[in-house]
Specification:
This protein is α+β, with helices and mostly antiparallel strands and 242 residues long. It has helices at 49-53, 73-81, 96-105, 122-129, 143-186, 190-231; strands spanning 6-13, 16-26, 31-36, 43-48, 63-65. Helix 2 crosses helix 3.
Length: 242
């Protein structure tokens, strides 16, 4: 770890360990600039690294995200400092990884959310999870809070129903290209085998992407259900994702 590094630690979600990464920028003096959630409204703050690690399941295991091309350390820290006090956190569209990656590379993205961000209503989900600035004003089992949670759950379920068939199709494609590659190798057709293996690897990558998104959807659903139960909200009947 060094000044200007994009660092991250694993955090839990809905009681599950090591579910998502919390990112920040190492300032080189045992402080980190990151989107801190220790206050009512998530805010970009400069805190001691112990605070950054804070509430994680694996204290002390801080990792560094590497890039082949990025800003020099002084510029990275300066960019992070330029956003101190910001309170525009959004789980899907402006989370801690978006912030740190922008500071480091100038690109506003989160590999954790990836394609999932295109499938969800970020404002509703953010509010339902309690990460948006307006949820604090919602009383426990009120019509507005119940409606927000159910809308978010509906959105997750729709995304699941769209993704699941794509996941199954990608799995079948992977199996098909694997079989083609095996037959080509057995027949001594190295040219066909090479092409089939390339297709197989592409299908495997696609399958992994869909699988990751399904996993995220399942974990987010569990988080929302737990939140609804904690608030005493009567949620619509939900099926279990597996």
């Amino acid at each position: 770890m060094a000044k200007g590094d994009q660092i991250y630690v694993w955090r839990s979600l809905a009681g599950l360990e090591g579910v998502y990464e919390h990112h920040g920028i190492d300032c080189g003096d045992r402080t980190v600039i990151h989107y801190s959630k220790r206050w009512e409204t998530p805010t970009v703050r400069r805190t001691h690294i112990d605070t950054f690690v804070g509430e994680t399941d694996r204290p002390g295991r801080v990792r560094v995200k590497r890039y082949t091309t990025c800003y020099i350390p002084e510029t990275v820290v300066r960019r992070a400092e330029s956003r101190l006090g910001e309170q525009e956190y959004n789980l899907i569209f402006n989370n801690c990884e978006h912030f740190a990656t922008w500071c480091k590379t100038g690109v506003h993205r989160s590999a954790q959310m990836g394609p999932l961000a295109n499938r969800l209503d970020g404002s509703v989900l953010d509010q339902a999870l309690g990460t948006g600035p307006s949820l604090g004003s919602l009383p426990g089992n009120s019509p507005s809070s119940a409606d927000t949670l159910n809308r978010a759950l509906d959105d997750l379920e729709r995304s699941w129903n769209r993704l699941q068939p794509q996941y199954k199709d990608a799995k079948e494609v992977l199996q098909q290209w694997d079989q083609v590659a095996r037959v080509a190798v057995q027949g001594g057709r190295d040219d066909l085998a090479k092409g089939a293996i390339a297709k197989k690897l592409a299908a495997k990558k696609q399958l992994q992407s869909f699988g990751d998104q399904l996993s995220q959807l399942a974990k987010l659903t569990e988080k929302l259900v737990d939140r609804g139960q904690a608030l005493g909200i009567d949620l619509k009947s939900r099926r279990s994702y597996s």
